[in-house]
Automatic annotation (TrEMBL):
Signal peptide: none
PROSITE patterns noted in UniProt: RT_POL
The Reverse transcriptase domain, residue ranges: 58-310
InterPro entries: DNA/RNA_pol_sf, RT_dom
Taxonomy of the source species: Eukaryota, Metazoa, Chordata, Craniata, Vertebrata
Organism the protein comes from: Salmo trutta (Brown trout)
Name of the protein this chain belongs to: Reverse transcriptase domain-containing protein
């Protein structure tokens, strides 16, 4: 966690900002639970920008998020259109009210600017940053692996898979982390209000189901959710003692280099235990069945039998 002396407060917005955001709403987007269409909002932008600015600024100043914007519309989309429509053959798409997403976007930009300007995001995170992408993440990793191999070393790579990561984010823990990052009371209250008392209704054949309460996790389909998850997992890198990490949003890759396979295995196994402890502390779940390990080395040096053997909680990690 950061020891820098800095603080974050939410800033109000102008009518011009709200007007521009309304005018830039794209066409063809499905409506949320409020059934409010982007085209309608864009056409009415000159008339509603002033009252919306008042509502947004009231939210930012009071640290409260409107309950009417916390209701998600859940649409089951078939994974395979050729198969029957069943829960097993569907994936849920969460749709939030457009006005909610506009306010989220305002707050998200303010938080991200604060975190970046104060170097609070770990350097190995490549998501949502200027001049960073999946390409820079891949280049960063492979460059280090190739350098190690050029020096005659073995490289062990661990691909982590977190189960339902967004759904398991603990609200108290993320608020504590935000406080450590310098969020002031009103900003903390706003995030708490944004996360709590949420509900969702499934939408099928033109009808909504009864609302279902959501007591933990980060809103799916939100603008702010991915950034909050990034902050939630930002300190994972500090749990590592002998390995390095490259991260893109919720995709985390851990790797170590050494003169022998045994040395690499010891480094990865040691930090796998550190990761296990971090996961428990943060109430997340590491999917050991989908977490994989890989040995990177020249064909000449590759062991004839087993490569890297890792385990977590008595479960063997599959080598690929």
């Amino acid at each position: 966690m950061s020891n820098k002396i800095c603080s974050f407060s939410l800033q109000t917005v102008s009518v011009e900002e709200v007007l521009n955001l309304l005018k830039s709403l794209p066409d063809g987007k499905s409506t949320g639970y409020d059934l409010m269409d982007n085209f309608l909002l864009r056409c009415a932008a000159p008339q509603i920008a002033v009252p919306l600015r008042y509502i947004f600024n009231w939210s930012l100043e009071k640290g409260m998020f409107a309950n009417v914007w916390k209701h998600a519309k859940l649409c089951p989309i078939p994974k395979d259109c050729k198969e029957p429509a069943t829960p097993a053959n569907s994936r849920p798409i969460s749709l939030l009210p457009t006005l909610s997403k506009i306010l989220e976007g305002i707050v998200s930009r303010q938080i991200w600017e604060y975190m970046e300007n104060n170097d609070l995001i770990t350097a190995n995170q490549h998501a949502y940053r200027k001049n960073h992408s999946t390409t820079t993440a891949l280049v960063d990793m492979t460059d280090q692996w190739l350098n190690a191999m050029d020096n005659g070393k073995f490289v062990g790579v661990l691909f982590l898979d977190f189960s339902a990561a967004f759904d398991l984010v603990d609200h108290e823990i993320i608020l504590t982390k935000l406080m450590h990052y310098g969020f002031k009371e009103v900003a903390l209250n706003w995030v708490q209000s944004y996360l709590t008392d949420r509900k969702q209704s499934t939408y099928i054949n033109g009808s909504f189901s009864s609302p279902h309460a959501l007591n933990c996790g980060i809103p799916q389909g939100s603008c702010l959710g991915p950034l909050l998850y990034l902050i939630y997992t930002n300190d994972l890198s500090y749990a590592l003692a002998e390995t390095q990490a490259t991260v893109f949003a919720d995709d985390t890759t851990i790797y170590a280099a050494g003169q022998s396979v045994q040395q690499v295995q010891q480094a990865l196994q040691g930090d796998l235990e550190n990761i296990r402890e971090w996961v428990c502390q943060n109430k997340l779940v590491l999917n050991t069945k989908k977490t994989k390990v890989m040995l990177v080395c020249s064909t000449r040096k590759r062991p004839k039998q087993h490569g890297i053997q890792l385990s977590m909680g008595g479960v063997q990690i599959e080598e690929v």
